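Bumping my old thread because nobody answered last time. Still need a sequence for this structure:
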């Protein structure tokens, strides 16, 4: 069919979670509470690391940047998701849909490289402890963080540019609660080969390079830890890495289940469920895992609670 005789789509209809019947208000309140908790806990980590002198170390600096990426990520997706739960479906202009995809990609990609930077920090701390202070200087930390965010802003830009050149005709329904690349490619009435090629070229270094780096560094870390003679020393070394490893497994597990090994097309509800886990629960669990498993953060929290109690008196 000649595309000149078709009207071009200027907005998309997001179906959200469909008809939730009487559960709509309950699910809205539940998701809203989780979102508020996730935002509050991540903001708390950023502020706590910034104002606490004892937390001014590379590990916590990277952790604060990880929390910042979670804040940007959830702020982009969740408010619109909550709105879709209330109104059942919503319309989103094409420009906003593409912008949402780009702003979703930036913190996601930055997070991949931040997790790799955190693994490098743990590698230097455990495998080269005598050189830690000279290697992990504040200048070096800053350079690593800036690089992570620059890569986050740069890598999806090429995909965004090619996506913006696509034409969308007739069909404009997205059975999801945010604009992702897969439904956009399915709805396009122009050739998507260039977008798919650019996406593949970008995705593999973004996902696999940091992941492989993390694996290599932890192989070296585990070898070094196993050489420690005392069980107390081994336990202490493992405990400094456990929180990071849990977050890496959670992040790459949900990411791979959605994008690398996605559910079949007829499993759209499963895909939505995994996306909820990725957009709501993971940002909540990350700061909680570090807070509950880290003595320095727990100590800083207790210190400020004591100060607040003294002010109340």
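Sorry it took so long. Here it is:
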């Amino acid at each position: 069919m000649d595309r000149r005789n078709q009207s071009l789509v200027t907005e998309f209809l997001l179906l959200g979670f469909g008809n939730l019947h009487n559960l709509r208000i309950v699910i809205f309140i539940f998701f809203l509470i989780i979102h508020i908790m996730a935002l509050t806990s991540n903001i708390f980590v950023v502020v706590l690391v910034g104002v606490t002198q004892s937390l001014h170390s590379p590990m916590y600096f990277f952790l604060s940047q990880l929390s910042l990426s979670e804040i940007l990520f959830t702020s982009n997706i969740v408010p619109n998701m909550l709105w879709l739960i209330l109104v059942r479906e919503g319309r989103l202009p094409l420009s906003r849909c593409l912008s949402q995809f780009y702003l979703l990609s930036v913190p996601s990609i930055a997070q991949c490289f931040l997790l790799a930077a955190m693994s490098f920090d743990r590698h230097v701390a455990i495998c080269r402890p005598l050189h830690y202070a000279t290697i992990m200087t504040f200048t070096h930390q800053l350079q690593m963080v800036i690089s992570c965010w620059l890569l986050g802003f740069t890598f999806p830009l090429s995909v965004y540019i090619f996506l913006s050149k696509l034409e969308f005709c007739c069909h404009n329904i997205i059975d999801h609660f945010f604009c992702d690349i897969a439904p956009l490619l399915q709805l396009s009435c122009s050739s998507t080969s260039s977008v798919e090629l650019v996406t593949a070229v970008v995705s593999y270094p973004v996902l696999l390079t940091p992941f492989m780096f993390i694996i290599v560094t932890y192989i070296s870390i585990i070898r070094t830890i196993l050489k420690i003679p005392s069980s107390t020393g081994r336990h202490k070394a493992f405990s400094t890495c456990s929180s990071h490893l849990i977050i890496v497994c959670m992040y790459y597990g949900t990411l791979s289940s959605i994008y690398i090994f996605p559910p079949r097309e007829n499993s759209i509800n499963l895909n939505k469920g995994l996306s909820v886990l990725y957009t709501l629960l993971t940002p909540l669990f990350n700061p909680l895992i570090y807070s509950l498993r880290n003595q320095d953060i727990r100590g800083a929290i207790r210190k400020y609670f004591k100060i607040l109690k003294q002010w109340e008196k």
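The radius of gyration is 22 Å. Let me know if any region looks off to you.
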